[in-house]
Amino acid sequence: MPAAAAPGTTAGTAGTSSADSAGASKSVRRRAGRPSAALLDQAGITAAALELIGRKGYDGLTMAALARQLDVAPSALYNHVASKRDVLLLVEDHLAALVDVSGFGAGSWEDAVRTWAWSYRDVFAQHTPLIPVIAVLPVTDAPQTLAMYETVSGGFLAAGLPEERIVSAIVALESFIFGSAYDVTAPADIFDAGSMAGATPHFTAAVRSLAARGDERPADVAFGLGLEALITGLGALRR
Amino acid sequence: MPAAAAPGTTAGTAGTSSADSAGASKSVRRRAGRPSAALLDQAGITAAALELIGRKGYDGLTMAALARQLDVAPSALYNHVASKRDVLLLVEDHLAALVDVSGFGAGSWEDAVRTWAWSYRDVFAQHTPLIPVIAVLPVTDAPQTLAMYETVSGGFLAAGLPEERIVSAIVALESFIFGSAYDVTAPADIFDAGSMAGATPHFTAAVRSLAARGDERPADVAFGLGLEALITGLGALRR
DNA sequence: CTTATAAATGAATGCCATTCATTTAGTGAT
DNA sequence: ATCACTAAATGAATGGCATTCATTTATAAG
């Protein structure tokens, strides 16, 4: 857990072990009506969603399952979120706080970017179904994500990148990170050409010679290779 | 299991220009039973799916809509594809053939990569819902995609990249391309911090100064920046 | 002529997100 | 105290979705 960022606002609730409201499985039958204390809130929904995702994966994350996890009727969720997409947004923003931006302001710019990029990829490799959501997500709707951008922007500016290229540089890195996150989840034999191998000699040979020197995970090798290239190339913009 | 199946008898029809069977909207009521010539085949299904995607987007691509487009009952589709995922695979492989690999073997390696990467991104920017599918797709199931890899591998080898790094280099570029494809579809105001702008001075300033010099599309600027960095970095591996 | 089969039908099935009328328990004002 | 208001729950629809299955039938093969 890289920790870090976790900007002030919601830090109070976020700090508590997220399991509490998630695990509530009292089988006590409740009647409709306003309870003494609200059963649901966004923090509880987020925690329950994460718990569910961890146990059953994203296929298991249905509004019905989420409601059951919280011992509540599915329709009750809609008092606190407008849609399932909203739930995914809550989860996404929670995860953004786990990305390690501690390197910015500490060591070299290169090392800070390395730490950030690897942890960013690692976090979202476990949550690839969120990537299509993030990609189109206005930052306004995700405060933790926005906080991450602020820290990274500050680090880039301090390192001497021209202000007008900072967003482009971040976007380029992020695009690479998201694409690479998918890569982590790919099956090991994804490049096995099978019966078509005869028709693709160059590619088949390349796949074989990669596999031959295989201690490190292929996805990690590719990520390291691309990341170092990006760091060098983007670093050259500094003045 | 996709590919294989393709009942031999009807293979002849598969070779025909795929557009014909897509537009078939005869309202003639048919009875159950084997028709004189098969109404459906994978080429026709692919063409109809592309037509539908172009007209209604991926939300409009349902098995029911696809069947209607082909003037057939939804269940009939399952004689030719095992699942909706299979339909997406057919579409993906069709698109792979549109990617421009003509640069390999022609000009410089750098230019070939540029042409390939830009066209690859452009094709899939229109089809981002396919990206999660491609990412986990064994190449065996996608002959056109495999053919693309073969051409690119050959180009990389000819340019002097060590064989054991070719796959990693391609994966790194592809990851960047997929991530960047999402970027193209993002709304223009995605980085507008709105009410949070006060709390994020560096980021907000960076966004503003990017917008200030804005003739080119932001997604294109970021893609160009990252791509040139990758080309330089990966090119340095040549011997 | 018989038989096997590919390829269609349409009627389920089960899952899903979401909506809605309804109920109820607190809160705050009079 | 009483009353009205409202937040937050319920459970019963609703409509859409992919997929399955028993059934039908034209055709090709033997």
Description:
The structure is a homodimer of 239-residue chains. Chain A is built from eleven helices and no strands. Chain A is mostly helical and 239 residues long. Chain A folds into two domains: 11-95, Arc Repressor Mutant, subunit A; 99-235, Tetracycline Repressor, domain 2 (Orthogonal Bundle), CATH 1.10.357. Chain A is flat, with a radius of gyration of 21 Å. Chain B binds a DNA duplex (30 and 30 nucleotides) through loops.
Task: Detail the topology: elements first, then pairings.
The structure is a homodimer of 239-residue chains.
Chain A: H1 11-15, H2 19-22, H3 42-56, H4 63-69, H5 84-96, H6 109-125, H7 131-135, H8 143-158, H9 163-185, H10 201-212, H11 218-235
Chain B binds a DNA duplex (30 and 30 nucleotides) through residues 7, 9-10, 30-36, 38-40, 62-64, 72-76, 78-80, 83-84.
C-alpha-based Rg of chain A, rounded: 21 Å
- Name the largest protein-protein interface in this structure: A-B, 74 and 74 residues
Structural class by secondary-structure content of chain A? mainly alpha
* CATH architecture name of the largest domain in chain A: Orthogonal Bundle
Tell me which oligomeric state these chains represent: homodimer
Strand content of chain A: under 5%
The CATH topology of the largest domain in chain A is Tetracycline Repressor, domain 2
Q: Which CATH class of the largest domain in chain A is shown? A: Mainly Alpha
What is the number of independent domains of chain A? 2
Identify the overall geometry of chain A: flat
Q: Kindly, what is the distance between the CA atoms of the first and last residues of chain A, rounded to a whole number of angstroms?
A: 34 Å
Helix content of chain A: 55-70%
Mean pLDDT of chain A: 88
